[in-house]
Structures are given as C-alpha cells and as structure tokens.
Amino acid sequence: MKAFYITSYKRPEGIVYGELADPVPATDQLLVQIKAVSVNPVDYKILRGDLKMIVGSGFPRIVGSDYAGIIKDVGGEIKNFKPGDRIYGAVPIFFRKPGALAELLITEPKYARLIPEGMSFEEAASLPVASLTALNGLRKCRIAYGKHLLINGATGGVGHFAIQIAKAREAVVTATCSAGNVELAKTLGANETIGYSRDDLAKSKGKFDAILDAYGKMDYKDACRLLNRKGIYASTLFMPTSVFSAFWVQLVFRKKLTSSNMRSRPEDYEEIENLFKAGKLKPLIENTFTLDKAADAFEMAEKGRPRGKIIIKI
Predict the structure, then answer these.
(1) Over the stretch 268-292, which tens digit does the pLDDT of each residue have?
(2) At 222, phi and psi to the nearest 5?
(3) 255 within 8 A of 229, measured Cβ to Cβ
C-alpha cells in the first residue's frame, strides 16, 4: 500500500511517501480503506520529534489520527460493523501504533463510528480531534445560554468548531482573529471580534465568563485580567508546568485555569453529529492535498496559519 510515514525524526530526509506492506487485521479488528485524513498539531509535532518520549522511536511510523473511509474487511469476532460501511474516527498514534495516512488502516471498533447520512468523507475526517477538543473545552468552561465567551484563535481547526458549538448553546461569543478573518469569524457565529496580538488583548475592555484558548498561547496575565471573578480559562496547550500557576490563580484571583483536551466518549461524538445534522456545525475545509503531497499539507499546518481544517484525500 502507499503510505506517508517517517523513518527518523530528521527532516526532510526522514519523511517518506512510499510503499509499505498491507496490514492484516486480527479477529477483533477492522481493515479500512482510507478516503480522507485531517492534519492536527499533534501530527506535525510527531514529525518534528517533539513527542518522541511518548511516541517512541520505532520506525517506519505512519502518522495521522483523524480518518474516514470504507470498511474493507472485518474480523470474525466483530458483529456491529460490516464490509462497505462508511466509518470515521481517531486512532491512537502513541506507543508505536500506526496512524491513518495510508491507503489501508487497521483499527478497533471502539475507534470507529458510522458516518452520518449527508456527511462527506472529508467532513467526517475533519471532526474527531478538533471538534471533540472544542466540545470538551466548552464543557469545562461551562458554556450555556447568555455566557460571555472569548475564543482565542477562533478561525483555526479547534476554534472554528468552538464558535459554532458555543453559538448552538446560545453563548455570546467574542473571537480573536486576524483582520482578514473577521468576516469568517462572524459568519461562523461570533458576535464580536478583536485582534489576537498582545496589544489587541491589552486594549480590550471586555470581561468574560470564560476563555477558550484554542491557539494555546495566551498569557495567563491577560487571561486573568479579561475574566470575570470565578471565570474559567481552558487551553488546548495547558502543560504540567502550569499546575502551580493554576493553583496560584485560583487561590489569589478566584479564577480557574484548566486544559481543553480531547474527550471521545460515544455521547460526545453523538452531540457533534446531532449538531451537524441540525445544520448548526459545518466543518471549514479550504485546503486539501493528495497523499503524495502530504508533506506540503504538514508544512501548511505548521507554518501557514490555515483557516479551519486541512484534509489529505486518499
């Protein structure tokens, strides 16, 4: 099969598009013909070697977590899926497990869901990591009717889903974005927009019940200043070193710092699917690449500040 994989953490020589042996499913696994994969920050961080302590150094390694495709074969123990089913999901790519950027993928049923009617492979592949991260972040921010929410990095992969989910919950949304993305943010559902630079944030007079930092790099001082008392800040890049800061901010300012990590329970997927079916959530896909151009997709994801999601079609 054709695949996009790494043979080392050296770039660019360690990045390869080439042939690998077809995988063979066990009796409790699915064999999937991949149609689309989306690119997430964790994927290019793996390519850079940032996560090698978790991912390991076994090569070759196929990358890519979010996928959508058609079941080609099922193990004998599996009863709830059949060949020909259109499925999507996110496969774990840590601890030497292969990713999805290949013509074929082996996965377990717990990492697969049927694609809802009317959803394309590209739309399905865009959803898991980004939309579920946004959903969990908004849950931790306790977003509901009338809550004033600031979304930092609002037109990126996580952010553009967060705007739509927050609006579906009838929150009042302010989005940080570049001047060129103001109209997009408002189209997605933002009530107001401000620039995302430190100076822009310093000029803001707004006070918010919660901040979802989809970009992950807002200064905690800015977050504390912009939050109401007992407000909540959730970041996609909340690190273990932030634990002391979180304790201090809670103690002194009565404000909460927490993480916006992906949660992938069946009810989470179901909530996202229902929003899609109701027309309240639409993936933004402006950039698509073929598998042989996957390196270009990763370059754009890492350095190009893309809007919405980047998709690799297979």
Answers:
(1) 999 999 999 999 999 999 999 999 9
(2) -65, -45
(3) yes
